[in-house]
Specification:
Elements (H helix, E strand, L loop, with lengths): L4 H22 L5 H20 L6 H15 L2 H10 L13 H33 L39
């Protein structure tokens, strides 16, 4: 599908406007709604660039998708978007450290994998303990502390019993 020069300009402006909206949304206090809106804008930019075969604009859309997904904590999807954005070039993109962004995602993916493995091991150990298998045993601590009470029969005051913690007035 060929584009007239004026069509190419309109497509570029549309994609850039959507990416600018994505960036603006990422600069606001993030909520689930804001992240959905930002991802939607980046997805629209990518769809527009792809539909009109503007392969020069696609990497930028992937880059912004990666930023949204990273802010959302969706590390695998962010990593995939950054890998696709690796060819991002042009004004405003020369300072983008794609390797650093993908490296950060990989670190977080490993962290989440380790965390999930620890949780699975803990769950399995607790489950086995409940089923009566040898392994972990539950230990309960009481909040109450028993203190011996001494009664003095020769006391002139009639206070009865006193604990060691003293209730002097």
């Amino acid at each position: 599908m060929g584009c007239l020069p004026s069509d190419a300009t309109v497509i570029t402006q549309t994609v850039n406007a959507l990416l600018l909206r994505t960036l603006a949304l990422l600069q606001t206090p993030l909520s689930v709604l804001t992240l959905h809106q930002a991802l939607n804008a980046a997805d629209q930019a990518l769809a527009t660039a792809s539909h009109f075969h503007r392969f020069d604009l696609e990497p930028r859309a992937h880059l912004y998708r990666g930023h949204v997904l990273r802010a959302w904590g969706r590390w695998r999807a962010a990593h995939a978007a950054y890998v696709r954005a690796a060819s991002a070039r042009g004004q405003g993109f020369s300072g983008t450290d794609i390797r650093g962004l993908t490296r950060d995602c990989i670190v977080m993916i490993r962290f989440e994998n380790e965390r999930e493995a620890r949780l699975r091991r803990t769950y399995t150990a607790v489950k086995e303990g409940r089923e009566g298998k040898k392994g972990l045993k539950a230990v309960r601590f009481s909040d109450e502390q028993r203190v011996p009470v001494f009664i003095r029969h020769d006391s002139q005051d009639d206070e009865g019993t006193r604990s060691n913690t003293s209730s002097s007035h």
